[in-house]
Amino acid sequence: MGDSWRTALDKEFVKPYFQKLKEFLIAEHHAHTVYPNLNDVYSWSRLTPLDSVKAVILGQDPYHNVGQAHGLSFSVLPPTKLPGSLRNIYKQLSNDIPTFKVPTSGDLTPMAKAGVLWLNTCLTVRAHNANSHSKKGWETFTDAVVRAVLDRPDGKGVVFFAWGLPAQKLYDRLRIDEEKHLVLRSPHPSPLSAHRGFLGNAHFKKANEWLRKTHGEEIDWVALSSVPP
């Protein structure tokens, strides 16, 4: 885990729920294949240090097939074909940001380095078994991750993308101060729901407008376009 996050989340690691989660994960690793690889479970924390977070994009469960998940929500490693949700994210990005060119790669690492925290609410999964590690403790931990963003010493507001009901409920539960932060709500980018209001939501454009107005900075979404195929 990246140093800034380890410091902020230090108290979580000794809590009973986290000890139980560790025991569960050790047993799972002995009996099954688990994704992502161990060294990628916290890759989000190394790529996006706490003080660099400009936006948070929540997913739910890591992809559960070979060579896909690597610790960032919605992101897949080449040569994995772009998942439907990510194709719709790219489609909306190209509508919102005129200079954005849709990449062939689904690796969102450049965006993570640009200050976007791509966070799944559950950080591991058993191979080929969706949601198999949900309700084992990860959700409590990732709530603490979002709280760490809310409680940053610099007090800077960030953009929270609330795509789909689970993300919206999490943000509502944490009572995000919408005078200080921007919460952008819409249906999920999944092919099952994107046409109900994700496509056309202008979230990436709105995020940059708010960041410019509030902090005099924006997210370099075009950093993704430079990813080699």
From TrEMBL:
One matching Pfam family: UDG
InterPro entries found in the cross-reference section: UDG_fam1, Ura-DNA_Glyclase_AS, Uracil-DNA_glycosylase-like, Uracil-DNA_glycosylase-like_sf
Entry coiled-coil feature ranges: none
Active-site positions on this chain: D61 (proton acceptor)
Record's catalysed reaction(s): Hydrolyzes single-stranded DNA or mismatched double-stranded DNA and polynucleotides, releasing free uracil
Classification via SMART domains: UDG (SM00986), UreE_C (SM00987)
GO molecular function: uracil DNA N-glycosylase activity
Residues annotated as signal peptide: none
Cellular compartments annotated: Mitochondrion; Nucleus
EC number: 3.2.2.27
Domain Uracil-DNA glycosylase-like: 46-211
UniProt keyword annotations, A-Z: DNA damage, DNA repair, Hydrolase, Mitochondrion, Nucleus
Gene Ontology terms: cellular component: mitochondrion; nucleus
Annotated GO biological process: base-excision repair, AP site formation via deaminated base removal
Stated role: Excises uracil residues from the DNA which can arise as a result of misincorporation of dUMP residues by DNA polymerase or due to deamination of cytosine.
Matches recorded under HAMAP family: UDG
Family listed: Belongs to the uracil-DNA glycosylase (UDG) superfamily. UNG family.
UniProt name for this protein: Uracil-DNA glycosylase
Phylogenetic placement of the source organism: Eukaryota, Fungi, Dikarya, Basidiomycota, Agaricomycotina
